[in-house]
Amino acid sequence: MTASQNNRDDRIRNTEIRLEKTAAERVLRVLTYALLVFWALVVLFPFYWMLITSIKSYGTYNNEYIPRFFAIPPTFQNYAEAFRAANLARYFLNTTIYTLLTTALMLAVIVLAAFAFARLHFRGKNVLFALFLSLMMIPNELVIITNFQTITSWGLRNTFTGLILPTVTSVFYIYLLKENFEAVPDQLYYAARVDGASDFRYLCRVLIPMCSPTLVTVTILKVIECWNAYVWPRLITDNEAYFLVSNGIQEIRENGFGRENVPAMMAAVVVISLPLIILFLVFRKKIMAGVARGGTKG
Amino acid sequence: MHRNQMKAWLYLLPAILFLGFFMIYPLVDVIIYSMEEGYNSVAQTSFGTGFYNFSYVLHDPYFLQALKNTFILVAVTVPLSTGLALLVSLALSSIRKLRHLFQTVFFLPYVTNTLAVGLVFMILFKKTEYTDGMVNLLIHMFGGPTVDFIDGPYWAKMLVLCFYTVWIVLPFKILVLTSALASVNDEYYKAARLDGAGKARIFFKITLPSILPMLLYLIITGFIGAFKAYSDSVALFGTNLNAAGMNTIVGYVYDMLYGEGGGYPSYASAAALILFAIVLTITVINLLVSRRRMSQLM
Q: Is residue A61 one of the residues assigned to a domain?
């Protein structure tokens, strides 16, 4: 066997291996996309279904033994019905007020606490901080029982105060913000002090602007949490005038529209889901980065 | 110095007040409640102290049903959702085209209201006189027998609950895992490919060890989250979960506290403490096992 023949055999074998590899890779590639497309369909289908059902007329929907994938002719009657029969506008207003107040109060409380832990010196700081951190392990279910009794005995059921008070603080966000505040160089603080700025002024003029990405993250997470809040509002409100959207949708499900009006129900679901989805599509990058950093669900 | 001390406590005051009232005091109180026998919320009196409440809860058929449901839910959804999330994240990080689009789509369930979208799932799975529902039509198309997933047999209801739970928790897991995968040092992959390592070998020797901490974090938080399942079940089966036989431990706590059959904070407290004990035990076991695994791999 000559050297050149040997060489050629090698080359042939190499191309064969490469061909095989690309075939295997192509199969893998197809499988990859198949998986992604499949899960995308599973995720999107419920959204599609609520949209399409919400624009079917009541009669059309109930006559379709085999539901159709399209609505001809589309009608917006259900949306009018959803706002007329159920108190959707009221639920919306309540949730907006609740979300704004809770988030604003929480930001004030956690910024002040995080600043004290990050920048001020006082006796017992480390012990107190350890105590704060240990509170992160306490599940909400454990404290909600007494909170329910407390709010009830204060006569704060069916008020915004009762809804908001127990959900204002978050130890985790204090921790997140404290770490962030500590990352700001000390020199800035001393420079500000030399210029005669007070601690509070330094906090407002330097720290808050510098740490605004974290604050935005915390705000977004809290807004999502508030918009989806269900358990506490359910315990604390039984007057429809104070229902949030979650409780409203549950009310609609159990009593609203005379049970069988599914299209109107779906219209209500679309209206309730829309604000967060729009918020998400606008702030997609910020929200995803924020959740990856500090979110939990499930 | 003394003035500074005062100031620091002033900054901390709001957080301490809120945490004290709504977290530390309830924590003590829940233990007291759980020991008070025959506590009456109206008269605020009790017969004596002891462990009767725990024994009552542990013998209550509704609690045992809730316990069984919760354990099945945990055992099915935690491995399933983590595995699926890992597959999807691997698929996501292996493609370039359409990657952002897929990521955006997959994240959508995170920003939706659990109660609202649960209603859509109910419509999709429910069988009524008017229609068998979308899912049953699909089953029928493939020649299977139709079944009412919402008011039907236990396994069918459990299936929907597990499916909905996975649908809800997946976005967070996919997000965390894709960012973990993206942060694996590229040099390792280059070196491995130069050495001619195969895909499987690269995955087990490089990818998996690098993302293992994140994976374990997801498993632990997944366990905790699944043990606290509640609103997903309400979304699908309505507020009367005991009647549907689909209650969860957290649901049992709230039902004991409030609503029809409510007004028993002592039983609720005992059940909440049992839940806390279970979650704590599982978390500690998880941490011990994962520490051993980690030291084996490193």
A: no
